[in-house]
Specification:
Largest sheet: 5 strands, antiparallel
CATH class: Alpha Beta
Number of domains: 1
Number of helices: 4
Strand order of the largest sheet: 8-7-9-14-15
CATH architecture: Alpha-Beta Complex
Bound molecules: magnesium ion
Shape: globular
CATH topology: Creatine Amidinohydrolase
Number of strands: 15
């Protein structure tokens, strides 16, 4: 069952989304060689709480932190620790915040210092694939249209699509129906309606998209250790398209 959000709910989801966006902007200047992921986590938690919100992921199914910090070949669900960022790293930072019971969810992959050209391309193309997927969203479109568009874009740019993880509905729970896979068939899957809220989140790799999970039961990494990137926005389906909720004040009015 995919819920349709009321106007009031969408207003609260916008506030939550804006807080997630602001947390990304707040963290950005700190993402430099020498900082630990635990320190980034502490900064993010303080910032989210200063906005009268709570971290969505902390305690979610036992996840121990505010952020998911996934470095280089780690795909998602990296746990902040004493690892220091180094020049040439990439780090995917996934942030969820809950405001008055409603969540926002957005991930972004950042570079640390100078990174290889190939990695820059991975980041640019993964970000592009997110928007290629989002551009399919309008009432009457199918969930499969989003995945098909992302998969076509990734494949034509010789990137791997991680298939075991997907986007999702967002509302009073950070993960709701429906699943939003990053692959699919046009015209298949649930039909989108105005007022649905979903997170779209392609996870693409430079090499093979095969993954494994660490002994900590959370962190997901590529088997061939190829770098991976993750870009995510939470959006609401509007009358004629979509609006991004996890964005700044100007666009998210
Ligand atoms: Mg996320
Ligand atoms: Mg998500």
């Amino acid at each position: 069952m995919i819920s349709i959000k009321s106007k009031r709910e969408i207003e609260l989801l916008k506030v939550a989304g804006r807080i997630v966006y602001q947390t990304h902007q707040y963290l950005k200047p700190y993402i430099k060689a020498g900082i630990t992921t635990k320190e980034l986590d502490r900064l993010a938690e303080e910032f989210i709480r200063s906005k009268d919100a709570t971290p969505s992921f902390k305690g979610y199914e036992g996840f121990p932190a505010t952020l998911c910090t996934s470095i280089n070949s780690q795909v998602v669900h990296g746990i902040p620790d004493d690892t220091k960022l180094k020049d040439g790293d990439i780090i995917s930072v996934d942030i969820g915040a809950c405001y008055k019971g409603y969540h926002g969810d957005s991930a972004w992959t950042y570079t640390v210092g100078k990174v290889d050209e190939e990695i820059k391309r991975l980041l640019a193309d993964t970000e592009k694939s997110l928007f290629v997927g989002l551009n399919e969203i309008k009432p009457g479109a199918h969930i499969g249209d989003i995945g098909a568009a992302i998969e076509e874009y990734a494949t034509s740019h010789k990137l791997g699509v991680v298939r075991e993880l997907c986007g999702h509905g967002v509302g009073t729970s950070v993960h709701e129906a429906p699943d939003v896979p990053n692959f699919g068939t046009r015209g298949k899957g649930p039909v989108l309606k105005e007022g649905m809220v979903i997170a779209v989140e392609p996870m693409l790799t430079l090499g093979s998209p095969e993954i494994y999970i660490y002994d900590n039961d959370w962190t997901i990494d590529t088997i061939d250790e190829s770098p991976s990137a993750h870009f995510e926005h939470t959006v609401v389906v509007t009358k004629d398209g979509y609006q991004i909720l996890t964005t700044g004040d100007e666009e998210n009015g």
